[in-house]
Amino acid sequence: MFQTQVEIPISSLKIGYEDNIMSLGSCFADNMGKKMSTAYFMSDVNPFGALYNPISISNSLELLLQKKLFTEEDLFENRSLWQSFSHSTLFSDSTKEDCLKRINSRLEFSNRFLRQTNVLIITFGTAWVFQKRGDGKVVSNCHKLPANEFIRRRLTIDEIVTEYKILIQKLKSQIPGLSIIFSVSPIRHWKDGAHENNVSKSILLIAIDELIKQFSQVYYFPAYEIQLDELRDYRFYASDMLHPSDVAVDYIWKRFSDTYFTELTGQIYRKLEQLATDLAHRPIHPGSDEYRTFLNKINERKDKIISAYPFLSNRIK
Predict the structure, then answer these.
(1) Among 110, 178, 297, 307, which is most buried by a count of CB atoms within 10 Å?
(2) pTM for the complete prediction?
């Protein structure tokens, strides 16, 4: 075996199809969240868009706990687009009305979803933050505004731990049954340089370790370690040599599911994974008898799954 295996302790936390799962964080959180959605889990992924630093993730969860809805005062205009410092460019729009509609419709859904969430997955990407000059607020996205409008600095371990101790207590008080899985994104922030990237990731790792020691319902999944130690060959990276390749994402997802899925969840997932693959198939000749037979077989299999697991009836289209 030509790799070092990352040992993951058996977890007391188990995830099933009855759970609601919210995932926030870097674009790696998007990758894992899409796996959840494709597998027909009840999930909500990055309601503010991708978030990279711990403070922006914490601020976003605070907004959800407050049931915050945005107003014109929360937006600014830049390059003919209305934007929010709390959101990615996915929410930007040419009119403030459409921008607010896009932001608030998503918030209304996520405000409700968070209160029904059993498992919250938080993925830290970097310890570096951008603070607006003047009010010192950490922004989630600079939206390509001039660099002199921000102060860039690196968070300390104590800052992150203090921030999340308060946040976790709030989450516990409002959502008593909530479990939290932290991870660190394996995506390297190479613009900072190799050393600074490693220092940043180390800060995140130590902060999470401190939180695990203080809260029984907090867990850690070693996505970062799996990518760097098990998948260290460059064939497991995308063309930029920084992001995990699809093969790597699939592998990390398997390690995640092996760690947290119940046996029944794993059985259901394997059936649904094949079903999702078949449903996504796009035929060359959609009017052919062969394709109609194929569709009939899919529908028969879908009906069998729904009959065996009725709670999936509203999720499988």
Answers:
(1) 110
(2) 0.93
